[in-house]
Amino acid sequence: MDDKSQERGGDSEPVNSTDRRVRADAQRNSKALLEAAMAVFATSGVDAPVREIADKAGVGVGTLYRHFPQRSDLIVAVFRNEVDACANAASVIAAEYEPGEALARWMQRYVDFIAAKRGLAAAFSSGDPAYESLPLYFLEKLRPALQTLLDAATEAGDVRADVDAKELLFAIARLCSPDHYGGGPEQARRMVGLLVDGLRYGGAPSVGPKT
Fold first, then answer.
1. Distance between CA 36 and CA 74 in Å, rounded?
2. Is the Transmembrane keyword given for this protein (predicted)?
């Protein structure tokens, strides 16, 4: 067996420890850039200098541009990353808490998502076609996550049965809008807590078919 054969795996692709390190470094850099961008966008807006983002991530500007050639690429990636994290949190919370409590806790997690997204608002309202797919992505990820929690809480009798997941997503987002009541994140959490109390009114355990 020659040296080249020894360097290849079963799928005939080169197996090289240097390549693996490069891929791992690239993944770490990408994650660091997304986290840094989210933090910078939240405080300085989406027009913040890219060097500020790169410095916060601990990488060079060239590395940022290799991962995200356009500013819109970074903004889209940040939004999708935040949506994914919020959606994935639903199953984690559901595994740790009873259905009604899980729903309430995820709704507060969603408040955090809305608060973090404020820094992206200017980009989303810009009319740039790069962002056209994001509302659909938002619904495709978050609506099923919330619906699963709602179904479980309804089945347990913890919340009323006439709640639509899409409407609830938009209701929470409206409560979190500073233009809606002039408050900050803490006030938004309190108001969403009141909304949770309203959902509990009229809740009743589901019953099976009569025999």
1. 11
2. no
